[in-house]
Design brief:
mainly alpha, globular, single chain
Amino acid sequence: MIFNSFSFLFLFFPLILTGFFLIGRKSQQGAALWIVGGSLLFYCLWDYRFLPLLLASIVFNYWTGHRMIIAEQPHRQRWLILAIAIDLLLLCFFKYVNFFIGSINGIFHQQLQALQIIVPIGISFFTFTQISFLVDAYYKKSTAVPFLQYLLFVSYFPYIVAGPVLHHQEMIPQFSDPKKYTLDPLNLATGLALFVLGLAKKLLIADNLVPVIDSVFAAQQPQLLQAWLGMLAYSFQLYFDFSGYSDMAIGVSRCLGFQLPLNFNSPYKAASISDFWLRWHISLSRFLRNYLYIPLGGNRRGQLTRYRNLLLTMLLGGLWHGANWTFVVWGGLHGVYLCIQHGWQFWMGTRGAAPHRILDAATRMLTLLAILIAWCFFRAPDVSSAFEVLGGMIGIHGISVVQEITSFGYLMLITGGAIAFLMPNTNEIVLYLDRYYKQSLPAFSLFRIHWLPNVPWGIISGLLLALCLLSMERTNDFIYAQF
């Protein structure tokens, strides 16, 4: 089951919402059990065969986490190594074993047979979510929690398919708060508004850009205009698809009274690559910083060590996205970008200085160009195909009028660009009073729009929902659901 389906909109979610608040009037624990049951059903409707794996992972990590909370050194370290090793072994088996087999075949010219493996949905997200709990348990930053709350935290249906990556210190206190189990009309209205805006991003923008992108990657040697338009279309599709899912997840959770962390904040308005990673997939960036980059040493041991740690972090972050060398190259490129940026800042000694407007505009354009180049590898089926597109972007295959793109395709490109670069994002529109939003970085926009729970906004939301429903039958899967 997916958010952008009739069964979710008109059956699953209304039942979950109604049952949650009816049961919550009498029993907080009963309401939590209702959400757990709904979350496990939601997961089963994707693929019931992996439900035992999810439950086994939850039980094992809960048990080892609590062993670390009550244990003393050096026993905590042994439990941590054991738990993370098993988590990563499972992740590697399901997600990367065929990648390793294919790499061995290519390097050593072997004929090893690939295994018939289906990747469990959401395994990357629930693995990283639990690793953060384990590490915090090791450092005594997490306390013992009831199993029901932990089960709800890990299996929570709004996030489990495509994020955001949750942190126990943000979510578990909410699950234990009795006030969250009573209906709040403002939360309901806010959540529905966010959900509709996210659904519109996905169905009305992202999915309508697919034909433009396919025309580029279907071509053997895309020419200049075709390559540029195609990569711009893909950058917009990826953003509106993934941020649309995040908006829907945050909206669904807000209807239930729980606040998921923000995951996007106008990333294409970033002034640098590090700024981009503070705005793109924010929950993953936070995880990589707190649980990989800083434990590796961060920037505490000089510039060279910092560059090494940046490269390792981004390479592993790229590999997290998928079992393909294209993702490794994508992550490596972002690691190189970050090293160049920090090296330049260190050499110039301008950290924290406000740049001139012209320099600032040039830096933003260079940042966007670097992001587009990296997206070529993220989208391409293999490295050679990515280089073909890059070749097209510099004109080595010629320049042509793009006949494959329709007038509607150009309209969607213009619409996507206008929204991504000039308009306020959904956080600024709907969550402008929310404490989570107030902690986020400001983003440029030509004007401000503030949602209110009133009739005009109700009409706008209703019209958007009607357009989305008309597009529901031809929707595509969420891109990040495959990661």
